[in-house]
Amino acid sequence: MNIGVDPVKAGLVAALNKPGGNVTGITSVNAQIGSKWVGLMRELLPSVTRLAVLINPEVRMNTVDMVTDVQAAAAAVGLQVEVLSASTSSELETALASVVQKHAGVLMITPDPLFLDRRAQIAILALYHEVPAIYVNRAFPEVGGLMSYGSDWTDTFRQVGVYCSRILKGEKPADLPVQQQTKFHFVINLRTAKALRLQIPPTLLARADEVIE
What we know:
Blueprint: E1 2-3, E2 26-27, H1 34-44, E3 50-55, H2 61-76, E4 80-85, H3 89-101, E5 106-109, H4 113-117, H5 119-128, E6 133-135, H6 139-142, E7 147-151, H7 153-168, E8 179-180, E9 184-189, H8 190-195, H9 202-207, E10 210-212
Parallel strand pairs: 1-2, 2-8, 3-4, 3-5, 5-6, 6-7, 9-10
Antiparallel strand pairs: 7-9
Helix pairs in contact: 1-2, 3-5
């Protein structure tokens, strides 16, 4: 498996170190990066007092943990959090428009298959409403999103391939601990930053794994 939620909470394995069944693999628990997102966006826009988080209410397992993480990190630095919901393309348009109405200076897009599928729409709407947004993977900056920070998908798929090879050679999934992704990828799209009239701090540029110009 290559999964973005806690496989123990999902009931797929008994424990990370001892799966105990016929399933093992890699988990990328991006729910724990909410506080990192708050730090990055605050570094970009230190004057922001309110941020918005977009969730799909129909997918709750990873969403609840991530929103909780964002809220805790935001509260620690005096930021207010607005939670926006969307589970269809039309609801995405309404949600993105409401960011401005709620006076949120930053938008955070939680991991979700719908949002990934509609990434171009979201990036265009964020730019149209002039809202700086951060996403979970580089697929978003590739289509015009401002920034992404999340698990390194390339490394994750490589690790999955290694485990597949070991299992095909005779090792039992029950004996292979579930690995947690520890490599993260930070991407900045400078074209989008320019369109939003944002000056990216040199400290952020220096930490970026990839800069799209």
